[in-house]
Design brief:
Helix content is 25%, strand content 11%. By secondary structure, the chain is an alpha+beta fold. It folds into two domains: 50 residues, no CATH class; 99 residues, Ribosomal Protein S8, Chain: A, domain 1 (2-Layer Sandwich).
């Protein structure tokens, strides 16, 4: 039918609901605001819903995004954690650190999973947890799961990045490529 598998067309009602929900939300300083959609014409196809092109709005209770330019923090990627000593990074990679808490994101939408991850990491850091396990799932298609791809991005967002030292794929006994070991900074 010409439609990409896994993508669907957003209805006019859904687009209006989205615009209404986003009214009053301030975009990050380095991102351009999304222009409101114009009335769809019958000749033009309806816009397709993007796979989280920009970060999800802050979950309620999350601190507001800092004004101005926040201090630049290096991006963390799987197994690449600037500022983490080699021995600790190796222990994390091998799954040799005790897991203080875990979160399973299976079956959640991106928005719900994003909010759940924020609450979980924040609460874990507040409790003084050091190593946590985030289960994203491997995904059911060749490119991997959406949550598996988004979790590292969410951990690098300004609200969570100051709490996170590093992350890497888990060992098979903890979920392998469908889970992440996340090392949190020590509470001072």
């Amino acid at each position: 039918m010409g439609m990409d598998r896994g993508r669907r067309v957003v209805t006019a009602d859904e687009a209006k609901l989205w615009r209404d929900a986003m009214r009053g939300v301030t975009p990050f300083p380095d991102r351009l605001p999304v222009e409101p959609a114009t009335k769809p014409s019958l000749a033009a196809p309806a816009p397709s819903f993007p796979v989280l092109a920009s970060p999800v709005p802050a979950p309620s209770g999350q601190p507001p995004a800092p004004r101005g330019q926040p201090p630049a923090m290096p991006i963390i990627a799987h197994g690449r954690s600037p500022g983490l000593d080699r021995r600790t990074a190796e222990r994390l990679r091998k799954g040799d650190m005790p897991i203080d808490a875990s979160l399973d994101l299976h079956g959640m939408t991106q928005e719900i999973a994003h909010a759940a991850l924020w609450r979980f990491v924040s609460a874990s850091a507040e409790r003084g947890h050091r190593c946590i396990l985030v289960i994203t799932g491997k995904g059911g298609h060749a490119g991997g799961g959406v949550l598996r791809a988004q979790a590292p991005r969410w951990l690098n967002e300004p609200a969570l990045r100051p709490l996170v030292l590093g992350f890497t794929f888990a060992q098979p006994k903890h979920g392998g490529d469908g889970a992440l070991y996340v090392l949190l900074k020590r509470r001072r």
